[in-house]
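Ticket 4471: requesting a sanity check on a complex prediction with DWN. Repro inputs:
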Amino acid sequence: MGISLARYWRPAMQSNDIKCRSCKHSDLKVFFDLGDTPLVDRFLTEEQLKQPEPRYPLQVAFCSNCSLVQILKTVPPEEVFCDAYSYYSSFSPALLRHSEENVHEIVAEEKLDGDSLVIELASNDGYLLQYYVQKGIPCLGIDPANGPAKAAEEKGVPTLNTFFTKKLAEQLKGEGKTADVIHGNNVLAHVADTNGFVLGIKTLLKENGVAVIEIPYVRDLVDHCEFDTIYHEHLCYFSVSALDSLFRQHQLYLNEVKRLSIHGGSLRLYIRHQNNQSDSVTKLIEEERALGIDRLDYFSNFSDRARELKSSLQGLLTELKSEGKTIAAYGAAAKGSTLINYVDIGKNVIDFVVDRTPHKHGLHMPGKYWPIFRTEKLIDDQPDYLLILAWNFVEEILEQQQEYRRKGGKFIIPIPEPKIV
Ligand code: DWN
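Returned structure tokens:
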């Protein structure tokens, strides 16, 4: 490549405490810097609007040793997944359908019954385990967020309202609670102690059990310029190669992997104590090697692409406002917080955001303070345009908002490039 990489990246701050979250090497190179950003799921009350909002550096780096992409700053989990954490999985119907299908498949493949035990790490509001409860299969949720954990219990899902750690795994094993199946969706990338988390899975998983883990795929993030999925909750951005390396360090083995469209492109991993790797894994690792995902220059122009998208979206919104158009947004999503802060979209452009999650109503978006309302406000106010922050559910949202569309409303989809539909 003729372009000097020096333009795109710089060695992570030279400090002894910045080591790769997986392999502990210190050769990390920053290739994308979003500046100091607010916590994306810390939606603000009226009172909090009057107080300084915590912001933290958000820099993405590549490990030259194990090719893991990761952010440098670790915000204390207690601050991120605090009492007010308001992400409830069950307000996304598409995610519920996706989860129910997954449960049906696993129950059949693993021949689960009343003597089995299924444990989910980061079980949120019982969005997935509820389907095991319906089938009479014993299950246990583990989640540190108070609100979602309480909602899970109300669905009849037994839930430990705490963080999953290796220590907790050892305690559960001591109580005879080892799992035939461990689910862990959108959590492996969230934990500060990545290796401790994997060791906890190793401890908790029965000899012939399977861990079924879903995780955003860094290849889709780069291919579709999904820079908005970068935030402090997501400490790591995994490739299959980096995942294979991580689990092997602990004598766990990635036996199978499936690519999924959920959340902008994810992987579903099937991990066991036995090394029986299928073509699905070796094929993706070979593809990644051919693409160069295990090399830094694969990420070298990501920052430029994000900047181009920012400029294009700013231009579109400015043009619409100059024409006197009204614009609202749909989906008070974590990714939405990253997008509006990185693109710098203020309340002078977006009048409000709507969301189906009741816990978010009456609050304000991090960093830009847009007010969050119920989706019914769209029909009451009928803004000319609707910026879809939850673009990963765009089909569902377009289907759901047919009346808004019938009355002339138009949608702006920002990722992978801004377009109006
Ligand atoms: O990793 C994470 C992902 C899986 O979920 C978490 N750290 C945080 C969260 O990220 P997110 O908020 O970007 O995820 P979603 O699921 O894309 O957020 C969608 C938002 O849109 C939610 O607030 C729910 C809302 N929504 C809605 O109002 N109507 C969603 C759908 C599908 C709808 O029809």
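Notes from triage: The radius of gyration is 21 Å. Leaving this open until the requester confirms.
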